[in-house]
Amino acid sequence: MNMAAAEQATNLACLREELAARGVDAFCVPRADEYLGEYIPAHNERLQWLTGFTGSAGMAVVMATDAAIFTDGRYTVQVRRQVDGEQYQYRRLIEEPPLLWLKETLASGSKVLIDPRLCTLDWYQQAQQILGEADIEIVLSTDNPIDHCWTTRPEPLIAEALLLAESFTGEHSFQKRERLGKSIAERGANAALIFAPDSVSWLLNVRGRDVPRLPVLLSCAVLEANGDVHLLVDEKRVPEGFHEHTGPGVSVVSEADAAGLLESFAGKVVLADPLTANAWSQLSLERGGATLLAGEDPVLLPKACKNDVEIAGALEAHRRDAVAEIRFLAWLDSELAQGRYHDEAMVSDRLGAFRAEGEYFHELSFDSISASAANGAMCHYNHLDNTPAQLIPDSLYLVDSGGQYSDGTTDITRTIATGTPTQEMRELFTLVLKGHIALDSARFPAGTTGTHLDALARQFLWQTGRDYDHGTGHGVGAFLSVHEGPQRIAKAWNATALAPGMIVSNEPGYYRDGAFGIRCENLCVVREANTSAGEVPMLEFLALTLVPFDQRLIDSALLNASERSWIDAYHSRVREEILERLEHSEDREWLIAATRPLS
Q: CA 20 to 30 Å from 281, out of 10, 136, 437, 574?
């Protein structure tokens, strides 16, 4: 439910009183907590408390008599529905960054309050430069003023971590730490700040239960070149058997002692990523006398390139996930055929219930995007933010969903005809699907990045003067974050070359505001291609997702022979791998019909 405008005004007024008492003229409120992850626990949703905005990225800037909220293109519609335009200006995060807006808006000599736990060191350094040019002072404080106003702030969830067996991880923590410790030494450092909780969780072969949809242990760590780890974590999250599980060389340091630990690296060179780790941790290292070596988190690439055990687990997790998705699609078609057009919440819950029956299932990998008709035009729509809409006849229903399993993380989008689609809907869906096929079919040499491939998925929309305002693909973890870096497929430059073992999504789309949304998403893994007759080794994608595309939305006249062959081959593989896993005859019959050859 949207926060009422009156409540937004009350919260804003309280915050302004707190800022005035501190003698500052502006305060930046990012959608972030001290770990800077995409998913944050309820007690750290400060931007949502202040503004009502529930998107995954954004920032509010509050001044004495003015305020603005900055969001990217994914949330153009959503932000106007959730945030009171009388209280906040709507601004574009990319085109008009908050720091430039502050520089142009504030008077010389003004003071801007920033919580250094909630921004990267790189962003803080940009703020120093940009605001300094206008003689605007930055005031750093970890005593966040919102915490003094948020009287109904939830208590943090604290649960013991899960110890993930080597049968799922494929490598013991001690081996990982020893291997990465050597890489740290090779880069000229004595230690590295392992800041992201998913990096720490992968390194120690643990998972957490404190953040919905993100199975990470809320923690950060310092990894020394000899493989020893200092884990900064609430000790209540450390389960019995933890040290036996991780092996020797892991010490647990309480969060209260975090500053002391970081300041103890005097005279040492510490590798840290200014683009991903928060400013507070790196400023604490410098304050203690450490020398910061700017560089990428050494865990990122090893974590992204799944080993054989993780890839086998991902394949199996996607087969179980396909069973749930196919059971859901068969049920939904039956309901629609009988004229039962349920609301978005009910159908989403039904899909979640099917997933929950799968082996090794823990939870959803993100809040399902269950979007009927016009709601599908909002890329990151969440029916929980409003009164769920009904599915309607002769339109489209977009469902983007996934699961967290002990052996893998899934993410799939299917667009479904709710009755008889219009010819235009079929044409647009087919253009999107053609882009999906082009990307899936690509072969590319080592050194190719996702940016090099992005246009393959957009080309058919571009030819008709259309596009979509989100990336084409994101990395996915192994029972970790459904949005994992460093690889990405997008127009914006990404310097990370795609490599064997990386899992990425393939999800072109099309969105018409006020009408409908279309997206075709599979996850796939990068692997070496069989190019024995060629001169240059090539890589290719193998689809992990095994669920049919809605043939009612495919206009075969717009497909060439190779595209028709791709669809038939993909559907044949779905049928071969999933049919015998379906227990009920009605589900098997649905799958046989859904995977029939296009001809």
A: 136
Q: How confident is the model at residue 204, as a pLDDT? A: 98
Name the pTM for this structure.
0.93
Q: What is the pLDDT of residues 189-217, one digit of tens each?
A: 999 999 999 999 999 999 999 888 999 99
78 Cβ contact partners less than 8 Å away, ≥ 6 residues apart: 53, 54, 55, 71, 378, 380, 381, 385
Q: What is the pLDDT of residue 331?
A: 98
Q: Give the C-alpha separation, 400 to 421, whole Å.
A: 20
In whole numbers, what is the pLDDT of the chain averaged over residues?
Answer: 96
- The CA distance from 99 to 430, in Å, is 41
Helix (H) or strand (E) holding 198: helix 197-204
In angstroms, rounded to a whole number, what is the distance separating the alpha carbons of residues 529 and 312?
18
Residue 157 gets the label, from left (phi > 0), alpha (psi -120 to 50) or beta, of beta
- C-alpha closest to that of 43 among 118, 148, 150: 150
Sheet holding 191-194, edge to edge: 250-253, 229-233, 219-224, 191-194, 269-272, 291-294
596 Cβ contact list (under 8 Å, min separation 6): 551, 571
Could you give the 3-state DSSP secondary structure of residue 475? Answer: strand
Sign of CA dihedral 343, 349, 354, 355: positive
- Where residue 2 falls among pLDDT bands split at 50, 70, 90? low
